[in-house]
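Technical note accompanying the year-one report. For the benefit of new consortium partners, we illustrate the data format agreed upon in the data management plan: each record pairs a sequence with a structure-token string. No post-processing was applied to the example shown here.
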Amino acid sequence: KVFLKEILEKAGLPIPRTEILDEKSDLAAVFEKLGNPVVLKTPDGSFGTNMVKARSL
């Protein structure tokens, strides 16, 4: 997901607002920056697996 995001950005294609977290503790800052809801994905999921729509912490 991180690699694909970089490719799409370089190609000038539209992508959803995206934040990549290094630590779980960064999640509050992401909610503040993006608003809610946010869609949380793991880097290794595919086809919608390991994904959750969160409206609050």
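Partners are asked to follow this layout when depositing records. The chain has two helices and two strands.
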